[in-house]
Write a structure and sequence with these properties.
Layout: E1 2-5, E2 10-13, E3 19-24, H1 35-53, E4 57-62, H2 69-78, H3 82-99, H4 115-127, E5 131-134, E6 137-140, H5 156-165, E7 181-186, E8 201-203, H6 207-217, E9 223-227, H7 231-246, E10 254-257, E11 260-262, E12 265-266, H8 277-283, H9 286-294, E13 302-303, H10 306-322, H11 329-337, H12 342-354, H13 360-365
Helix pairs in contact: 4-6, 6-7, 9-10, 10-12, 11-12
The structure holds zinc ion.
Length: 370
């Protein structure tokens, strides 16, 4: 199989061993899942299905960020406990993913389950000379890590812009360098706090994924990714803190999914331009929604349009009329092995269905049950 690797900036061979360890950054459960999220998790699902089809065992971990600025703010606004909010949204998310036909993940650990691992990792980064304490927080010192930028290949100026846009707080006066990032921070009066050698506090944004990936899958993982907006700062920072502790490669292959837009701009909670999977499921068959997403290559940025659902529903009918059989399945495998070319796989099955050949097995490989 060949897949695009963000760090190597090209399509390269992805040749893991019999057991494939994968980690996908998961949701912060404070609001409903939108189609941008679903596209990411569906892409990981497709990859997992093809790897299993090829005889691999897969271990896909998807974390749940159940403590961060967003969930604490939302819980405050709603007047509920942040973990109650997390439990409610996680149940909603898991049921949507199940209805959409996603295979269960190997583990779905919560950030709050990893506080001991996070504390020991922050201690190790600090003791190794890659972090410093300032103003009650512990910051990673990017000047101590020569290969900072190895995942994103961004210039310092580009990093500064993205850090400001994506919660990296480059203006924090306690930092030595605006690109330094928080590993541990004091909690505000009404926020949850855990005891630590730096006083009561809570984790920074990036540390949970390093701690959880290493706890669940080991110090080096085969493949890690998420939405493309996580490349910087999130995945760059994960790599720096992980490798500064272990001295080993953190992730062998970086896998990122394009952004789904609406009305000309990326779908995001902060902009409010969202299409929620829960709303679509009230009107459309889950398999039609799945097909509407598979129409787009995972690396493409694209605009959500309801017309895509109409096309998908028609395709589903054509495929159902063709019925049981394995026509086109080898072409589907070849397409998926070529950088997970889902649109190519759809074409192959369309051609099979057009000749009246049963192609349900090829559809099943895409997670589409007819
Ligand atoms: Zn993450």
């Amino acid at each position: 199989m060949r897949l695009y690797d963000t760090a190597r900036q090209s399509v390269v061979a992805f040749e893991p061993g019999p057991v494939v360890t994968m980690y996908s950054c998961g949701i912060t459960p404070y609001d409903s899942a939108h189609m941008g999220h679903v596209q990411v998790y569906l892409t990981f699902d497709l990859l997992q299905r093809r790897l299993r089809d090829a005889g691999h065992e897969t271990k896909l971990v998807r974390n749940v960020t159940d403590v961060d600025d967003d969930i604490l703010r939302r819980a405050r606004e709603l007047g509920v406990h942040y973990l109650d909010l997390a439990a409610e949204e996680m149940a909603r998310f898991d049921s949507s993913m199940q209805v959409m036909g996603l295979l269960p993940v190997y583990r779905e650990p919560r950030a709050t389950s990893a506080i001991p691992e996070i504390l020991s990792m922050v201690g190790a980064v600090l003791d190794g000379g890659h972090a410093y304490e300032s103003g009650g927080s512990v910051y990673f010192d990017v000047s101590s890590f020569a290969t900072f930028g190895q995942v994103s290949h961004l210039s310092r100026a580009e990093m500064l812009v993205l850090a400001a846009e994506r919660g990296g707080k480059p203006d924090d006066p306690n930092k030595r360098d605006p690109l330094d990032f928080v590993l541990w921070q004091p909690s505000a009066a009404d926020e949850p706090a855990w005891q630590s050698r730096w006083g009561p506090g809570r984790p920074g944004w990036h540390i949970e994924c390093s701690a959880l990936a290493m706890r669940e899958l080991g110090e080096t993982i085969d493949l890690h990714g998420g939405g493309r907006d996580l490349i910087f700062p999130h995945h760059e920072c994960e790599t720096a803190q992980s490798e500064s502790v272990t001295g080993k490669t953190f992730c062998r292959h970086w896998f990122h999914v394009g952004m789904v837009g609406l009305d000309g701009t990326k779908m995001s909670k902060s902009l409010g331009n969202l299409v929620f999977v829960g709303d679509l499921l009230k009107e459309w068959e889950p398999m039609a929604i799945r097909l509407a997403l598979l129409e787009h290559h995972y690396r493409a940025d694209w605009e959500w349009q309801d017309a895509g659902l109409e096309r998908a529903a028609e395709r589903l009918e054509r495929w159902r009329a063709a019925g049981d059989g394995d026509a086109g399945i080898e072409q589907v495998r070849r397409a998926l092995d070529d950088d997970l070319d889902a649109p190519g796989a759809l074409d192959a099955l369309d051609q099979a269905a057009a000749t009246g050949a049963g192609m349900s097995q090829g559809a099943a490989l895409l997670g589409v049950s007819l």
